[in-house]
Amino acid sequence: MWTTTLSSATWAMTFWQGAELMMRARISMEMNLSTSFISGRQVEVLYGPESTGTGDIFLDTITLGGEDGILGIGPENLTRGTAPNDPGDTIPSFTDLQKQISQHVVDSEFGGITFGGTDNTIPSTLVTSPITTMPPSSRYWDINQRITYGSRTIFGLTSGTVDTDTTFLMFASDCFEMYKAATGGTYDQATVLFRITTNQYNALQDLDFHIEGQVFSLTPNAQIWPCFLNTEITNGVAGNIYLIVHCSGTHWGQGDDFTIGYTFIQRFYTVLNGSRSSVGFAATPFTRATTN
Q1: Lowest mean pLDDT among 47-51, 155-159, 254-258
Q2: Bigger pLDDT: 223 or 83?
Q3: What is the pLDDT of residue 146?
């Protein structure tokens, strides 16, 4: 099951039909099971400019694991307006429905997710940032930060999203062009990623995220796709070096200028705290690992 912070809707056993994401097949299979309860309400969620998830809202017991759907852990206010018959209401999200979860807290550490609290074994200090007040980012797990590469400023203070479902780091196009020029990356049409040479990799500098007065650095090794997974990418070539920073296609200053994806989150302990409307980060033993 995938997790995403860009939605608070949890989809079970979804499939695509054209641009429409349907749940009817799953519902028809589940509604006779003793654990299922059909609420009688419907939901409609927009995913991107052309894709809409529609279906009935139902309660069920969900076993996490495998690839059976999408687990929505975005803020509950994202559900406002998604129930066509009750546009002013919100729909309880996954963390709201779990009586076992005492706090609206989700944390992510390399290889796992914890609900209801934080990991006290993390050796470094957790730095927390309030969710930004800049629209439209204020609806999501979005924070304010600035980003530098070596001595170059890539972003001034701006807001963007923390999303577990986005693989790469996504930068607004004009800021991405500065990063690309600094690293020497060239577009690889076969993979739609950006490549660098071995010499360019050896010259990479830290990509620094300045959050609440603290610096969280992606080392050169953390800025590249794991080389041993190159052939898992469509048209990926063993031995190539691919950057994990990509262009979002938007322009800087629109209120959602970057996305911190999984390639960042796997390096840092990450806490999404709905009770305090904040996002936290801390260094881990994986932060400066050279496994890529």
Answers
A1: 47-51
A2: 223
A3: 95
Per the CB < 8 A criterion, the answer to whether 44 and 59 are in contact is no
The better pLDDT of the pair 288, 23 is held by 288
d(CA 20, CA 278): 33
If 0-12 CB within 10 Å is exposed, 13-18 middle and 19+ buried, where does residue 87 land? Answer: exposed
Three-state SS annotation for the chain: CEEECCCCCCEECCEEECCEEECHHHHHHHCCCCCCEEEEEEEEEEECCCEEEEEEEEECCCCCCCCCEEEECCCHHHHCCCCCCCCCCCCCCHHHHCCCCCCCEEEEECCEEEECCCCCCCCCCCEEEECCCCCCHHHCCEEEEEEEECCEEEEEEEEEEECCCCCCEEECHHHHHHHHHHHCCEEECCCCEEEECHHHHHCCCCEEEEECCEEEEECCHHHECCHHHHHHCCCCCCCCEEECEEECCCCCCCCCCEEECHHHHCCEEEEEECCCCEEEEEECCCCCCCCC
In angstroms, the CA 157 to CA 41 distance is: 41
On average, the pLDDT of the chain sits at 76
Q: Is the pLDDT of residue 201 over 60?
A: yes
pLDDT at 256: 82
